[in-house]
């Protein structure tokens, strides 16, 4: 295990935050896209893309999510890949569950809650080692 740079770890936490927080909003922003119908598959795809591209409820979280992806890419130059992937993806899961619950989605079940605690514990153990 190499030396852990505080700045890169903070960036990875921010990536997990950006990715996780935006997921429930992206889900909400796609509401209505399934109502788009066309016999031509290509035209249907174009209509769906236009629907999403002109929907601020989708585009705002999408752009924030992409900022997280840019930060992830930038962070990879200073981070060990075996550290970056688990931190970002597991924290994104935690933030998705928390924000989804805050927005009125179902409360994460016990297994998910235990999993989130294990994620937090594992990251703390890794950073303290």
TrEMBL record:
Compartment annotation: Membrane
One Gene Ontology cellular component: membrane
SUPFAM superfamilies in UniProt: Multidrug resistance efflux transporter EmrE
Membrane topology: Multi-pass membrane protein
Pfam families hit by this protein: TMEM234
Keyword Ion transport: no
Gene3D superfamilies, alphabetized: 1.10.3730.20
Entry keyword annotation includes Ligase: no
Organism domain of life: Eukaryota
Key words, A-Z: Membrane, Transmembrane, Transmembrane helix
TM region positions: 6-26, 81-104
Family: Belongs to the TMEM234 family.
Protein name per the record: Transmembrane protein 234 homolog
Organism: Nezara viridula (Southern green stink bug)
């Amino acid at each position: 295990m190499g030396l852990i740079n505080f700045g890169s770890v903070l960036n990875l936490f921010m990536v997990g935050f950006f990715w996780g927080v935006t997921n429930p909003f992206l889900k909400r922003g796609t509401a209505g896209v399934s109502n788009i119908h066309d016999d031509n598959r290509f035209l249907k795809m174009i209509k769906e893309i236009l629907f999403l591209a002109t929907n601020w409820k989708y585009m705002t979280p999408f752009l924030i999510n992409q900022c997280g992806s840019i930060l992830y890419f930038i962070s990879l130059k200073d981070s060990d890949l075996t550290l970056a992937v688990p931190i970002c993806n597991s924290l994104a899961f935690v933030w998705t569950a928390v924000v989804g619950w805050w927005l009125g989605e179902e409360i994460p079940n016990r297994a998910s809650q235990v999993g989130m605690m294990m994620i937090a514990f594992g990251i703390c153990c890794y950073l303290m080692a």
